[in-house]
Specification:
InterPro entries: Homeodomain-like_sf (IPR009057), HTH_RpiR (IPR000281), RpiR-like (IPR047640), RpiR-like_SIS (IPR035472), SIS_dom (IPR001347), SIS_dom_sf (IPR046348), WH-like_DNA-bd_sf (IPR036388). It is built from 15 helices and five strands. By secondary structure, the chain is α/β, with parallel strands linked by helices. β4, α13 and β5 form a beta-alpha-beta unit.
Length: 285
């Protein structure tokens, strides 16, 4: 598992049930202390059953509480978990929110430098380069990020498509082939267009790459490759937008990589990189 236990909890936090959130919040606020706690002690302190704590750690991907504590002790201490709410409570002004938000985004960026699974990212890069064509799918805010990436990719190739609603999903999904790569972008991992396109991709034998903000959601679970940036913010709105910043950085990096690779290796023979007058015109714009 690549992500530290604390950042893993932060990525799950908005989607946890009431009891799970109670456990998560206590661990976040007492991260140093829980390393020396037995499960019986933690259970008494937060008034939650030991079985609930065990299930919570298993949900994060650990075998149980003991393995979770070992991972906590081994992970670097992350002191960047100041909540956005705490930073703006005393001064609810736009200037203070902006300063607080900038600080927290920088903290999230620092965490992602060490926490992102770069091996997985390199695999995604290889998959994209080997694709016959790429279908980008997203909805609402994630869809706007996908569309921005699509427009950039269109300066390189015509063999990239963008889908953001159920109707287009059915039209495009039915034509998917084995050589296609579906890039599903969904913070929550529950986007209907993404899930429907993934089903079509699985039927066609196409490859699914996802960009999502939490582990163990429907999109993540059905992906062949998944990139999961994390946020150190707890305030839901601020967390959502800060993760969106990471999504944008990752997608922009994908575009820069593919564009640079194409220029360096002159891949005009590859299906994904067929140069056309249309693409030349797009670059000039």
């Amino acid at each position: 598992m690549n992500s530290s236990p604390l950042n893993l909890i932060m990525s799950y936090l908005p989607y946890l049930k009431k009891t799970e959130k109670k456990i998560a919040n206590y661990i976040i606020q007492n991260y140093e202390a829980i390393i020396d706690m037995k499960i019986t002690e933690l259970s008494e302190k937060i008034e939650v059953s030991q079985s609930s704590i065990t299930r919570f750690t298993q949900k994060l991907g650990y075998d149980g509480y003991k393995n979770f504590i070992i991972a906590c002790a081994a992970a670097p201490r992350n002191k960047n978990t100041t909540t956005f709410d705490e930073m703006v409570t005393d001064d609810l002004s736009l200037s203070n929110i902006l300063k607080s938000y900038e600080i927290n985004v920088l903290k999230s960026l620092e965490s992602n430098i060490t926490e992102l699974n770069y091996d997985e990212i390199d695999k995604v890069a290889k998959v994209l380069l080997e694709a016959d064509y790429v279908v980008i799918v997203g909805a609402v805010f994630s869809g706007s990020l996908g569309y921005n990436f699509y427009l950039k990719m269109r300066t390189i190739t015509r063999n990239v498509y963008y889908v953001d609603d159920t109707f287009e999903t059915h039209l495009t999904g039915k034509t998917l082939t084995k050589g296609a790569v579906v890039l599903a972008i969904s913070q929550t991992g529950t986007s209907e267009p993404c899930l429907e396109m993934i089903n079509y991709a699985k039927s066609a034998g196409a490859t699914v790459v996802s960009l999502t903000a939490s582990y163990n959601n429907p999109v993540y679970n059905q992906s062949d490759y998944a990139i999961v940036p994390i946020s150190t913010l707890q305030h839901f709105g601020a967390k959502y937008v800060s993760t969106e910043v990471m999504f944008k950085i990752i997608l922009d990096s994908m575009y820069i990589y593919i564009d640079t690779y194409y220029e360096k290796h002159s891949l005009s023979h590859h299906p994904l990189f067929k140069a056309t007058n249309f693409e030349s015109e797009d670059r000039e714009k």
